């Protein structure tokens, strides 16, 4: 029996499941001793805004939501000022708010999410993917390294300094 994994736009009906997944991730970050996502962001309003703007995406496993991410095209004001340098100045996809449902943790689904995002970018002739994460988010830092993302410098976002990465996909 094969497992069907797919990336699709989030729908408003998905908001409560997505919010539950984000709450799990917020708690995991807290238990890990991180300051990331510990100031009331993201919240249910963030999820609703992502969905309304068409930024919210879910990775599903056999139709069940397993991973949430916001994918934003060419728009992250914080990325215009970087202590360092981006690899490119062309069109890009920004990846924010990646969170995995605890039921699916440890199954490599975030790596698969990034594969799907790369396919999405290529299919839309988008040059690169840009992402940032907290300096202490070791799981995400490892994923970005394994997926071939280049460290570009630091950006100031959500009240803190974040490590910024980019990968050219076309």
UniProtKB/TrEMBL annotation:
<protein>
    <submittedName>
        <fullName>Ribosomal protein S18 acetylase RimI-like enzyme</fullName>
    </submittedName>
</protein>
<feature type="domain" description="N-acetyltransferase">
    <location>
        <begin position="5"/>
        <end position="170"/>
    </location>
</feature>
<dbReference type="InterPro" id="IPR016181">
    <property type="entry name" value="Acyl_CoA_acyltransferase"/>
</dbReference>
<dbReference type="InterPro" id="IPR000182">
    <property type="entry name" value="GNAT_dom"/>
</dbReference>
<keyword id="KW-0689">Ribosomal protein</keyword>
<dbReference type="GO" id="GO:0005840">
    <property type="term" value="C:ribosome"/>
</dbReference>
<dbReference type="Pfam" id="PF00583">
    <property type="entry name" value="Acetyltransf_1"/>
</dbReference>
<keyword id="KW-0687">Ribonucleoprotein</keyword>
<dbReference type="GO" id="GO:0016747">
    <property type="term" value="F:acyltransferase activity, transferring groups other than amino-acyl groups"/>
</dbReference>
């Amino acid at each position: 029996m094969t497992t069907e994994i797919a990336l699709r736009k989030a729908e408003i009906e998905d908001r409560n499941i997505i919010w539950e997944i984000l709450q799990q991730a917020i708690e995991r970050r807290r238990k890990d001793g991180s300051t990331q996502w510990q100031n009331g962001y993201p919240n249910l309003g963030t999820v609703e805004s992502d969905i309304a703007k068409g930024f919210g995406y879910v990775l599903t496993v056999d139709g069940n939501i397993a991973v949430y991410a916001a994918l934003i095209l060419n728009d992250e004001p914080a990325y215009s000022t970087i202590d360092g340098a981006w690899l490119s100045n062309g069109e890009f996809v920004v990846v924010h708010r990646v969170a995995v449902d605890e039921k699916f943790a440890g199954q490599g689904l975030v790596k698969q999410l990034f594969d799907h995002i790369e396919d999405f970018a290529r299919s839309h002739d988008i040059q690169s993917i840009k992402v940032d994460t907290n300096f202490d988010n070791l799981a995400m830092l490892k994923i970005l390294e394994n997926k071939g993302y280049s460290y570009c410098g630091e950006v100031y976002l959500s009240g803190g300094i974040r490590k910024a990465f980019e990968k050219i996909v076309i």
